[in-house]
């Protein structure tokens, strides 16, 4: 998270928001936010949302991630919002959205596995 320059800006049980100032190092050859960065932000948001619902000594790992890209990421800031749809004992089902300024760039669904 810190290597790409993202910060958590809002943390609630089952929901988080993360933001990133877009720089040239985040762009692909046409100047859009790189798809891998967008997927990383979605994964980060979904994963941290799941983390808010497990005890401190327990973690989560991504077991499945599907990202649908809706618009190119053109702007100054990426914002990822992640939330838990259903928290289970072994799996948490999550969703995330990634926005670039005021445009929805991607929508993701993720399954997070709870690990002891």
Automatic annotation (TrEMBL):
Domain Thioesterase: from-to ranges: 31-104
Keyword terms: Hydrolase
Family matches, as SUPFAM superfamilies: Thioesterase/thiol ester dehydrase-isomerase
An annotated Gene Ontology molecular function: fatty acyl-CoA hydrolase activity
Domain of life: Bacteria
NCBIfam families: unchar_dom_1 (TIGR00369)
Family: Belongs to the thioesterase PaaI family.
Name listed for the protein in its UniProt record: PaaI family thioesterase
